[in-house]
Amino acid sequence: MFENLTNKFEEIFSSLKKAPSLDEKQVDEGLKGIRQALLEADVSLDVAKQFIENVKPKALGQEIIRSTSPGQMVVKIVFDELVKLLGENNEDLNLNAVPPVPMMLVGLQGSGKTTTTAKLAKFLEKNKKKKIMMVSLDVYRPAAQEQLKTLGEQNNILTLPIVEGQLPEDICRRAISAANLNGSEIILFDTAGRTQIDLQMMSEIKQIEEIVKPTETFLVADSLTGQVAAEVAKEFKNTVNLTGIVLTRADGDARGGAAVSMKYVSKVPIKFLGIGEKIENLEVFHPDRIANRILGMGDIVSLVEKASQDLTEENIKKTEENLKKGTFTMEDYLTQLRQMKKMGGIEGVMSFLPGVSKIKSQMEQSGIDEKIITQNEAVILSMTKKERENPKIIDGSRKKRIANGSGLDIATINKLLKQFKMMSDMMKKMSKGNTKGMADKGIPPELFNQLK
Questions:
Q1: Is the pTM value of this prediction over 0.90?
Q2: Which domains, from first to last, does the chain contain?
Q3: Tell me: the pLDDT tens digits for 260-306?
Q4: SS (H, E, C) the chain
């Protein structure tokens, strides 16, 4: 997400940062580029115009003229305004009600409401330690209720049993009674959608809202619809007490205009981003971290959080022990490669790194792509246990055997062994407290070494 916008901003800031001083003409040219970048990213005209109006007086202020690094000051001003535009703070979910706490998901048909309901249920179970019950109120779309039921069964999430012929209002009342009996702490109501806004749909949602009295009402919107998503948010805000937005398919949106516009247009915070099809692919929306990503500064905090989600206590302890000893085996490297795959591969990790466009350029020049992870995994799996523990014993004949087992050539085996030696040396340095090299780069070891 934001790939196009990030590339444009990096170009603009690169020239501003190089200038020893800035005059009004240079600032105007920079702001003109920023405005154009926002519009090309599908940010609404009103939002882009207001953003520039907020930035310009500060960018031409006395603190810029007196600054020893005027370009950096402009970046800071743009960052601050971008955070304001996106919502300033991540707003936590409102669970301040007597259980079962009702929450409602609304939106147009095809926006991803049903899948998001299951993702949100899994998020609440994992992060809030709550017992969830999902309820489908979509009695119109064929198999909509069955879809939610299937998602519940696949992911071990409680779903209200389907009763054919019941109206949404009756399902709501039955759900509240059932939740009181089965001990559910939160009920997620998945409402029906339409292909476009219509009075009948809005009237039904209003009725449902009056019955369930939700503490949170989320609009689920497809980020790929750009400015349309922002207008839809405004319409729903006028009908129900909208408390948050979930932007789906955010991983497929290179422009990012919907995310930038929606908070401003609807006055409702974006709370989550849907970043993939898997049940765990729901990311909390942090305005400051998103602003960092848009401006090409990376988001190492989110990267670390993402990496730690799938790490077991056993893996963490093992890594700590290895770090203290300064040891690093092929088995450890295999674990890192698999962790990287879970995080979306090289591209998934890269989206969180500072200077992403430069890293991409380096990768293209070096011929690095997603295949490297799969290839390296195949090579390590073709090694014996002894070879994984001590790669120094891998001689010419062993390389031939590993090459045959992995279906790759000896040059690829040599490349992996070279990468491994670099990582092993780095681990030894880190065990002695010398972590400066990696800290400066802010890059995961396996990716950093491939770029060297």
A1: no
A2: 3-86 (1.20.120.140), 101-295 (3.40.50.300), 301-451 (1.10.260.30)
A3: 788 888 888 999 999 888 899 898 988 888 887 777 655 444 455 55
A4: CCHHHHHHHHHHHHHHHHCCCCCHHHHHHHHHHHHHHHHHCCCCHHHHHHHHHHHHHHHCCHHHHHCCCHHHHHHHHHHHHHHHHHCCCCCCCCCCCCCCEEEEEECCCCCCHHHHHHHHHHHHHHHCCCCEEEEECCCCCCCHHHHHHHHHHHCCCEECCCCCCCCHHHHHHHHHHHHHHHCCCEEEEECCCCCCCCHHHHHHHHHHHHHHCCCEEEEEEEHHHCHHHHHHHHHHHHHCCCCEEEEECHHHCCCCHHHHHHHHHHCCCEEEEECCCCCCCEEECCHHHHHHHHCCCCCHHHHHHHHHHCCCHHHHHHHHHHHHHCCCCHHHHHHHHHHHHHCCHHHHHHCCCCCHHHHHHHHHHHCCCCHHHHHHHHHHHCCCHHHHHCHHHCCHHHHHHHHHHHCCCHHHHHHHHHHHHHHHHHHHHHHCCCCHHHHHHCCCHHHHHHHC
